[in-house]
Amino acid sequence: MDRSDVTLERMRTFVRVAERGNLTAVARELGTGQSTVTRHLSELEEAVGAPLLSRTTRRVAMTEEGSRYYDQCVQILRLVEQAGEEVRDTRGAPAGTIRVSCTAALGVLHITRLLLAFQARYPDIRIDLSLTDERIDLVKEGVDIAVRLGPLTDSSMKLHPLGESTRLLVAAPGYLAAHGRPEKPGDLAGHNVIRMSNVAGSETLTLVGPDGRTHAVPVTGNLRVDHGLAAREAFRAGRGIGPTHRWLVDDLLESGELEPLLPDHAFTPTPLNMLIVPERAKVARVRLLIDYLAQEASALPGIN
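Now predict its structure.
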C-alpha cells in the first residue's frame, strides 16, 4: 500500500475517531459498521507508515504522529469542502447539511420553527438538529452551530450574540386564588416556588426593584425540574410560582393561563448566543443560517 491510498474517506474517518475517541460512535455517525471504521484506520496507518491512534479496550487516543497528522487532515478536508461549496454556489441553490445544537425548550418552542422556515427558503439544505441542555464539545459532536442560553466560556469558538432573554415571575390564576398574590419580594418566601435543579442558585430569587435595590429571597417548594417545558406545565397546572423566560410562556400569558407577578421588579436578563465552529463559519450554507438566525432571533418573545 502506498501514499495514493490516503483517501479522503479514510482521512475523514481518522479525524472523527480522533475527535470523538470512540469507534462505535463514529461508525454510527457515518452510517457504517465498526469493522469498516477499523479497516479505514488500519489502511490509513499503513499508507502513511506510522501509528496514528493508540487503542485500548476503553479509549482511543492520538499518538504524537497522529496529533500532527490530524491538524493537517483537518486543513485538507476543510479546503476540499470549501472548494465544493464554491463550485455549488456558482451552479445554483445552496445545498448540504448543517448540524445545529440548541437548548431544548427554546428549540422545541421556537428554533425548530425558524429552521423549518429557513429550509422552506433553501430546500436543498438539510438540517440535523440536536436538542440538549448539556454543554457539548461542538467539534467532537460534529456540530456547526450551537444556540445557548447563559454565559459561555469556550474561547475556541466564534461567539455571535443574539440578544438577552427577559425573565419574569409567573403563576396560574388558580394558584393565586388559592394562595394569594405576592405584593413584594419578601412575600415569595411563603409560596411554593417551582425551581430548576440544573440552574445554580435557584434556591434564591434575586430581583431588582424600581428604586434599584436588590432583593435576594430564599425560597422553597415541593417541585424541582431540570427542563423548561416541565416547569411550563407545572406553572400551567397551578402548582406554584416561579421565574421563567418570557419566550417559554408568552403564549400562556397572552391567553390568560398565566399571570405576571411583581411587574415592577426585574431579574438580570440571560445572554442568548450562537457558538460557531470558526472553520464552519466560512461555509456558505452555514453563513446563511448564521445570518438568518441573527435576524430572526430578535423577534422572539422576550429577546432584546
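The chain has three domains: 8-81, 92-164+270-299, 167-261.
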